[in-house]
Design brief:
It is a single chain. By secondary structure, the chain is mainly α. The chain has one domain (21-182). Helices cover 38% and strands 4% of the residues. It has helices at residues 2-16, 23-47, 52-68, 74-81, 92-102; strands at residues 112-114, 120-121, 167-169. The chain has a three-stranded antiparallel sheet with strand order 2-1-3. It is globular. The two termini are 13 Å apart.
Length: 199
C-alpha cells in the first residue's frame, strides 16, 4: 500500500519539478529563437511597405498576442510555435500582404497549412453552401476544382505558389511527418515529458 502511495507522490513531484532540458528541448528552444528572429525581421521589412494605419493595426495585433496570446494573429502564431506550420523566408511585400490579411475579421479560425512549404495563411470564412454560386461552365464535383465562386485572400500559397487546395488543416498536422518539417523556419513539435515510474 505504501509503495503505491509513494509512486503516486513521485509521479506528481516529477510533473511539478522543473527538469534539466533534454537535447530535444534545447534544439527546439534554439529553433524557436531562430523563428522569432526571422518573424521580427520579416515584420520590420514588411512595415516599411505599409501605410501608417496598417502599421498601427499590425502593431496592435502584435501587442494583443504579446500580452495575452489573443488578437488577429493568435491562430497563426499559436500554430507556428506549436510546430503545426512553418515560417519560410518571404519577400517583404508577401509578408505585408499576410500581416494585413490576418487583420480581417473574416478570417476563418479553421486554419490551413500549405503542404508545399508549411506556411499557414488566412482564408475567409466560407458562407453557407446554400449561398455558393457555381462558376460559369462548371458542374459540381466534375472536372478539377474550383467549382464555386468563393472568396479568397490568396488564390495560391503566398509562400511557394502551391494550389490553395493543396493544404492540411492545422489541427491535423500533428498526425503527419511532412517534408517541410525538415526545413528552416520550423520550430518542431513540443517535447512531451514522461513521468518517472518506479517499480
Amino acid at each position: 500500500m505504501r509503495h503505491r502511495q509513494w509512486r503516486k507522490r513521485l509521479a506528481k513531484l516529477d510533473v511539478l519539478l522543473p527538469q534539466a532540458p533534454t537535447v530535444d528541448v534545447q534544439k527546439r528552444q534554439k529553433r524557436r529563437r531562430e523563428v522569432v528572429r526571422r518573424l521580427v525581421r520579416l515584420c520590420e521589412q514588411a512595415c516599411e511597405l505599409m501605410s501608417e494605419e496598417e502599421q498601427i493595426n499590425v502593431a496592435e495585433g502584435f501587442k494583443q498576442w504579446a500580452e495575452a496570446e489573443r488578437g488577429p494573429y493568435r491562430w497563426w502564431f499559436r500554430d507556428l510555435f506549436q510546430g503545426r506550420c512553418r515560417l519560410p523566408e518571404l519577400a517583404p511585400a508577401t509578408m505585408k500582404e499576410l500581416l494585413v490579411a490576418w487583420l480581417s475579421p473574416e478570417c476563418d479560425p479553421m486554419t490551413r497549412v500549405c503542404r508545399g512549404c508549411g506556411l499557414q495563411y488566412p482564408h475567409p470564412r466560407v458562407t453557407p453552401m446554400t449561398e455558393w454560386k457555381l462558376l460559369p461552365g462548371k458542374v459540381p464535383l466534375v472536372g478539377p476544382p474550383p467549382w464555386y465562386d468563393l472568396p479568397v485572400f490568396f488564390p495560391s500559397c503566398p509562400g511557394c505558389g502551391a494550389s490553395a487546395l493543396d493544404i492540411d488543416w492545422s489541427h491535423l498536422v500533428d498526425r503527419h511527418d511532412l517534408p517541410w518539417m525538415a526545413l528552416d523556419g520550423y520550430v518542431g513539435r513540443p517535447v512531451r515529458r514522461s513521468l518517472v515510474t518506479i517499480g
